[in-house]
Amino acid sequence: MKKRLLRLIKNKYTLSTVVFLLWLTFFNEIDLVYIFQSRREVATLRNEVQQMRDDNARATEALHDLTTNAVSLEKFARENYYMKRDNEVVYVFKERPQPAQ
Fold first, then answer.
1. Cβ proximity of 59 and 52 under 8 Å
2. Any idea what the Cα angle at residue 93 is, between residues 87 and 98, rounded to 5°?
3. What whole-number distance in Å separates Cα of residue 30 and Cα of residue 21?
4. What's the angle, vertex CA 55, arms to CA 49 and CA 61, rounded to 5?
5. CA 39, 30, 9, 11 torsion: positive or negative?
6. By three-state DSSP, how is residue 65 classified?
7. Full-prediction pTM beyond 0.85?
């Protein structure tokens, strides 16, 4: 067993392969750590793009609803801009922030 291991270590092809793999793994500018970090970053960016596409679809649907439906437009104006009719009074209740414990 010891002779076989020693023979593998002395083999120039085995030694060059090991040195090459070490170089690629740790010492090269684009090493395995960089590749894994880049893949993780690409995955998070793809998730972010998908989330933005979903948000865009929801906003487009809401815009279409606001431009075609008068009831939803009135509801939006009342909720976000506190608009009221002539014969009513609007009260706005805001929650108090909870004290830190």
1. no
2. 180
3. 13
4. 140
5. positive
6. helix
7. no
